[in-house]
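Worked example 3 (structure in, sequence out).
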């Protein structure tokens, strides 16, 4: 168990790292953030930073020397970086989890190997593979690059009329998987934490709406039956135990229109955008649970403070930030990013409404 005043190293300097560092500070920890970009939002809230490439071993060495435990805020930490660091200090969650979740094919194989359902999928390594896979999976379908896909990047929908050769070129002729298109009723995610001693605490199931493949709105609790919510928790528990996970993770799922069945879409081995509501809407946030877990502190059961809505401020939407300051029940979070770009997550707003009341 880390003592207060110990130092937590965070790989990655985005808003997730920033909110982790703020939660760590509240518990009396110090953070050292390692990120390659000089204008990393997390740099603004900590005193110790390393601005260097993830392949810079001498910078990594000094970083490891300065911290007591290392965690990360993004899943694409290069494998050699994680290996280099874990030889020096504990890295949590275990970097072997990154290897599984960085590749959509190994991730889906892992999930289905646990007896958990996903959309039907097939490996695609060539144009011929794609033609064959379309034969077995059918149309409509979605072709996704195996690596480095997020917020809909590296993803192409294939309808009845699409020419598979053109799609293969458009995806960049990269290793991919073809997934059956899921006619879902809604998208949900479960955000959960597992402590060093194996205790798991789940936040309530979250319902998510995307716009242009980017998360726009989360609502809690999700509008699903108790049995669907319980099943989502069971899935999270199975995944966490199989990974011997330490820290916070999210599992994104589709709720099927026909029978309310759940299909796992993706595992995020980190704190997650759909869990930002916990900062204002729960008695413990996802960021604090993560800090507790990696510090070897006990987790606590989160209690929800009401009905919650979380809205992402994307791109130029942030320019209207002031309007939220006078909305009752609303809490504004800005990430301090200097440059506004279309599609860039600039901040979010949480609205907490007493259970039973609806938004005015
Ligand atoms: P992903 O990058 O896999 O998280 O996908 C981003 C978004 O694309 C998801 O949140 C869904 O809205 C949509 N999507 C991804 N895969 C599928 C699928 N197999 N069927 C239907 N929609 C999908």
């Amino acid at each position: 168990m880390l003592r207060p005043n110990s130092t937590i190293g965070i790989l990655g300097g985005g808003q997730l790292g920033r909110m982790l560092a703020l939660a760590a500070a509240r518990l009396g920890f110090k953070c050292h953030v390692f990120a390659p970009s000089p204008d990393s939002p997390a740099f603004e809230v900590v005193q110790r930073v390393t601005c260097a490439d993830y392949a810079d071993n001498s910078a990594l060495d000094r970083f490891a020397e300065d911290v007591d435990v290392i965690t990360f805020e993004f899943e694409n930490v290069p494998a050699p970086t994680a290996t280099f660091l874990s030889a020096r200090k504990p890295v949590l969650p275990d970097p072997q989890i990154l290897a599984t979740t960085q590749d959509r094919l190994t991730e889906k194989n892992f999930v289905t190997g646990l007896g958990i359902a996903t959309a039907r999928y097939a490996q695609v390594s060539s144009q011929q593979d794609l033609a064959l896979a379309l034969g077995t999976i059918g149309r409509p379908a979605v072709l996704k690059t195996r690596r480095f896909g997020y917020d809909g990047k590296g993803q192409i929908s294939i309808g009845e009329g699409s020419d598979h050769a053109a799609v293969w070129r458009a995806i960049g002729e990269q290793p991919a998987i073809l997934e059956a298109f899921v006619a879902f009723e809604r998208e949900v995610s479960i955000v959960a934490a597992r402590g060093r001693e194996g205790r798991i605490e789940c936040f309530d199931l979250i319902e998510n709406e995307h716009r242009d493949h980017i998360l726009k709105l989360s609502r809690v609790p999700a509008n699903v039956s108790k049995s669907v919510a319980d099943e989502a928790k069971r899935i999270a528990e199975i995944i966490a135990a199989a990974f011997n996970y330490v820290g916070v993770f999210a599992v994104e799922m589709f709720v099927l229109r026909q029978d309310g069945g759940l299909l796992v879409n993706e595992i995020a081995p980190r704190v997650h955008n759909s869990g930002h509501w916990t900062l204002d809407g729960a008695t413990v946030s996802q960021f604090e649970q993560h800090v507790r877990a990696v510090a070897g502190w006990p987790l606590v059961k989160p209690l929800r403070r009401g009905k919650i809505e979380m809205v992402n401020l994307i791109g130029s939407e942030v320019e209207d930030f002031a309007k939220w300051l006078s909305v009752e029940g609303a809490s504004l979070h800005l990430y301090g990013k200097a440059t506004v770009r279309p599609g860039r997550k600039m901040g979010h707003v949480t609205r907490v409404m007493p259970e039973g009341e609806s938004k005015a």
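Notes: The CA atoms of residues 110 and 204 lie 24 Å apart. The chain has a mean pLDDT of 96.
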